[in-house]
Design a protein that fits this description.
The complex is a heterodimer of chains A (about 80) and B (about 160). Chain A contains five helices and two strands, in the order E-H-H-H-H-H-E. With about 80 residues, chain A is of the alpha+beta class. Chain A has a single domain, classed as Orthogonal Bundle (434 Repressor (Amino-terminal Domain)). Chain A has a two-stranded antiparallel ribbon with strand order 1-2. In chain A, helix 2 crosses helix 3. In chain B, about 80% of the residues lie in helices and about 0% in strands. In chain B, helix 2 runs antiparallel to helix 5 and helix 4 runs antiparallel to helix 5. Chain B is flat, with a radius of gyration of 19 Å. In chain B, about 10% of the residues are buried. The chains are: A alpha+beta (about 80), B mainly alpha (about 160). The interface between A and B is medium-sized, with 15 and 12 residues.
């Protein structure tokens, strides 16, 4: 059976630097999460909820798909 | 050591809880094992051990958590990732607790029926031994819960 295993990638690190070298702490405060969560997101160790993804995109004033990308890997199991 | 420097306040607290749980359990069981057999009043000796262990646990927790909060600053409010990790940790710990208790019930039933009584590792023959077996189940569940939360914080979820 074909199973879709995907992973969410993001451009948060690049966007922070494009926004006046915004720090992780500043982004965390603006998005209402801890700095550890931003670190985890940048390292692709955590996939955010839809609400958090929208909040981060709003901080950067970008559409959601400019910040987060979903990469789907089809595997046969 | 570099890994330890990147620990957040929440991760340090988890680590401290883990270490404290195991240290207190080791202290309690070592004191219990050192009780001489055939005591005139085992109840009062046991109560004495429990009071001592509670006092050591309170002092240890105050010192350890005080030190952590002094070194890393106050804990930030939990966000969605913290709540997710807490929930997953609770779920894993609950699974371990249910599994351990089911094993214990099976053991008690096997004891009562006399099935494999010569091969069972520990005889749950008295209420006190049953109480300690339950304590070990709770300790195992709590250890697995905190350990899994630490792993999720470090390796991601």
């Amino acid at each position: 059976m074909a199973v879709n295993k995907g992973k969410i990638y993001n451009q948060i690190r690049r966007l922070r630097f494009d926004h006046n070298e915004m720090t992780q702490a500043e982004l965390a405060k603006a998005a209402g999460v801890t700095r550890q969560t931003i670190m985890s997101l940048e390292a692709n160790k955590y996939s955010p909820s839809l609400e958090l993804a929208f909040r981060i995109a709003e901080v950067f004033n970008q559409p959601l798909e400019a910040v987060f990308q979903y990469q789907c890997h089809s595997t046969d199991e | 050591m570099d890994t330890l420097r990147t620990f957040s306040n929440r991760e340090w607290n988890l680590m401290a809880t883990l270490v404290l749980d195991l240290a207190i359990a080791a202290l309690y069981f070592s004191k219990l094992a050192s009780l001489p057999e055939g005591l005139a009043a085992p109840g009062s000796a046991l109560a004495g051990i429990i009071v001592q262990v509670i006092i050591v646990a309170c002092i240890g927790a105050a010192l350890l958590f005080g030190l952590i909060n002094w070194r890393t600053g106050n804990r930030e409010p939990a966000d969605e990732r913290d709540r997710l990790i807490e929930g997953k940790g609770n779920s894993i710990g609950y699974g371990v607790l249910v599994g351990a208790i089911l094993l214990m019930i099976g053991h008690l039933v096997a004891d009562a029926l006399g099935v494999g009584s010569d091969t069972l590792p520990v005889a749950l023959s008295t209420p006190l031994i049953c109480a300690h077996a339950l304590l070990i189940c709770l300790l195992a569940a709590s250890t697995v819960k905190h350990l899994s939360q630490l792993v999720m914080y470090r390796r991601g979820i």
